[in-house]
Amino acid sequence: EVQLQASGGGFVQPGGSLRLSCAAAGFTFTSYVMNWVRQAPGKEIEWVASIASGGSTTYADPLKDRFVISRVNANNTLYLQINNLKPEDTAVYYCSTTFGKGRGTLVTVSS
Q1: How far is CA 41 from the centre of its chain?
Q2: pLDDT value at residue 57
């Protein structure tokens, strides 16, 4: 059974930082591109970033200066570092791969 469990979300003031994690299980993690996507309240799911097994990364253009995706293949773990958080970053963040997305983690940015 494929499992993707995001964690690390929380309530943050504008300008703060968070590091999200995603624990993956049930498939060969090293064989797949991994992604972060997010869904803001009342909006459609938005792609954030992707990382290949070898570490090459791509980002949504509006986010690339503040978001850093990484992975540790030995631990089957995906990460997303978010810096200079803005209220518009408020969303549920999910990790995803070919098999779909798992359980998300809520990030709330507010003063």
Answers
A1: 16
A2: 98
